[in-house]
C-alpha cells in the first residue's frame, strides 16, 4: 500500500472522484472507464471480499486505519475534509471512497443455469430502487438478478450504497432486448412471472401455493410498469392484492413481498 497525502482538489490523481454528483456524466464515464465508485469502509470491504480490485482509494485522515488494509497494492489518497468535498461535490460523511475496477460481467444464460429464484428488473431508472431491490434479493434468497438494457446501473454509487454492498453478493448480468432475452428463460426451463396489474392476473398467494420449481420474478419500471414486450414474454402475470385505494407498491417493496411469499 502506498499512502499519498493530497491537499489540492485539482490534483489529476483525483480525477476518478471528481464531480460524482453529475449523474449523467457518471453514467457515461463509469462503464467506459471500466470503473465504479464504492463508498464507505463497509462497502469497500464487501467489494474486495467479492474479488473486486480497487484502482485507488480516497480517504480522510481519521478513516485511514479502517480502509488502508483494503487497498491492496492500490494507492491511498489521504485528503482533508474540505478537499474531499471540493472534489466530489458532497460531504463525504462515510470517510472513504474507492475507484474500483469493474469485474467481467457473466452471461445471463450462465446465471440462469441451476438458479431456483431470479429477480428481473426492467427499465428501473432510479438507482435507489435498483439498490433496494438488490438488498431485498440478497436478504430473501434470490440466486441472481437480471437487468434490462435500460435499467439503472447496479454499480452506480447510489445503488451500491442503498444496497449496503449486496450488489457484490448477488450475481447479476444485463439481458439483451426481449426478442432475444425471452429465449434465455425458455432454454433454462425457468418460469417467467411478471408482477403487473391485469384482469387475468393470478393473485400472489394463489401463485405461491403452486410455485414453479424454477422461477424468475419480473418487475417493471417506476412510471409505466412493464413493457408490452416483457408482458408478452411472461408465462404468467401475477398481482399483489392491494387495499386502501392503492394500486401498486414501490418496485423494491414489491420485490420483497413477492420473494417472501415465494421463498
Brief write-up:
The chain has helices spanning 23-33, 41-49, 64-68, 81-88, 108-112, 127-139, 157-162, 178-188, 204-209, 228-233, 251-261; strands at 2-5, 35-39, 53-60, 75-79, 96-101, 117-121, 144-147, 172-174, 191-195, 202-203, 215-219, 236-239.
Per-chain topology:
Layout: E1 2-5, H1 23-33, E2 35-39, H2 41-49, E3 53-60, H3 64-68, E4 75-79, H4 81-88, E5 96-101, H5 108-112, E6 117-121, H6 127-139, E7 144-147, H7 157-162, E8 172-174, H8 178-188, E9 191-195, E10 202-203, H9 204-209, E11 215-219, H10 228-233, E12 236-239, H11 251-261
Parallel strand pairs: 1-4, 3-4, 6-7, 6-11, 7-8, 9-11, 9-12, 10-12
Antiparallel strand pairs: 2-5, 3-5
Helix pairs in contact: 6-11
Description of the molecule:
With 263 residues, the protein is an alpha/beta fold. It has two domains: 2-101, Ribosomal protein L30/S12 (60s Ribosomal Protein L30, Chain: A), CATH 3.30.1330.30; 108-261, SPOUT methyltransferase, trefoil knot domain (Alpha/beta knot, 3-Layer(aba) Sandwich), CATH 3.40.1280. It contains eleven helices and twelve strands. The strands form two sheets. A seven-stranded parallel sheet has the order 8-7-6-11-9-12-10. Strands 1-4-3-5-2 form a five-stranded mixed sheet. Helix 7 (157-162) links the parallel strand 7 (144-147) and strand 8 (172-174). Helix 6 (127-139) runs parallel beside helix 11 (251-261). The longest helix has 13 residues, at 127-139. The termini are far apart.
Shape descriptor? elongated
Radius of gyration: 20 Å
Largest sheet: 7 strands, parallel
Proportion in β-strands: 15-25%
Instruction: Report the top-level CATH class of the largest domain.
Output: Alpha Beta
Amino-to-carboxy terminus distance? 44 Å
The CATH architecture of the largest domain is: 3-Layer(aba) Sandwich
